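Q: Give me the 3D complex with zinc ion.
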Amino acid sequence: MTIPRLTSRDIRSDSRLDVLHAILSAGEVTRNERAQVTGLSAATVATVVGELIAEGIVLETKVTVGRVGRPTATLGMNADRGRVVGVDVAETYVRAALFDTALNQLEFLEVERDEHILDPEVMTEAVGDILDRMLEQQRLAREAVLGIGVTLPGLVQGPAGLSVFVPNLAWRSEDLDRLRERVGMPLVIDNPLKAIGTAEMWLGRGRYCSSLVTVNLGTGVGAAIALDARLVRGATNSAGEWGHTLLVLDGRECRCGRRGCVEAYVGVPGIVETLREIAPDHPLTSIDLQRDFILAMAQAVDRAEPDEAVHATIDRTAYYLGSALADLVAVVNPEVITLTGWTTWALGTSLLPAVRRHVREQAPGTSADGLELELSTVKGNSVTTGVATIALERSLADAGLITRRTAITL
Ligand SMILES: [Zn+2]
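A: Here is the predicted complex, encoded as structure tokens.
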């Protein structure tokens, strides 16, 4: 797949996307407010809004007459244009969420997985099953769904098409074809990081800034980078694989085959390893499943009698994370960093103060002085929300309203 150059049509499409983002993020707004938020001229906004209304994507929800001047129409997303689904396939679970076209979540399902079984065939069945169940519960026909987005860990896009690169989890193009057949509706697949970044830009802190990094903390760790309010994908959709940048030269073995990666210290198996280094016989180190380990850590932090080894592990993890984020600040210099992912939901508030301190101490010069480092405000599972948003973008692209470069096409 080649990435097309921008044409004047693309610039119009970009304006539509900007206006859509603004309408979606603000709930209901007037055209005038749109012009202010997007930085587009009032005339451009009027044209774009007219097109979006004509396509049934945006609705005039009410008309109010102000004290002075013309009546003002309030705009909102048309929630009933159709439905979109987002599915997050992770090592430890499969999650699926159904949304209307204003990205209100209508249903959420989760199936826990055995993290030791990573076979593409098993995962494809898991996606198919959870989708079938969701459609059945909602009494929805497949035709009522505009599209489905599925995230697979480690997805990259190369000259030969899509492939998924995670050791022990190799998806070939036949596997992806089988997934498309199994879901039986327009499909986009993407890397979870790109989904997280998209959710943050449409629904989170990314609505109010133009440079943003969202860091996902779970089994693996990674960063979604947005610059000038656009998600950075890179040549092979691998931008943001910050989890595989170097934290310790010749350090711990990483599952990517390299030594000393950030992920080997800040990913959940890395946190287990840190605890093991601090207290080799600590009972938490023998917990088999990663989710149980992280929840046990969170409970241990909250317990009245302090568990020294757990607190030392939190401190050390905050040090690793803060140091690695300082590198990210050195390269990207974002206005905002948000943290998300299931480690964040369990341990984020314990980690945050020390992480902030380490970032400020280690980022070069004054680059982190104005930096906001916060937990993400995107509700629910930002991967399912984000990949459903990418599916919605794709359906808008299919309608000729925006360009396809926002989504990977199969
Ligand atoms: Zn690595």
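A quick observation: Residues 272 and 285 are 6 Å apart (CA to CA).
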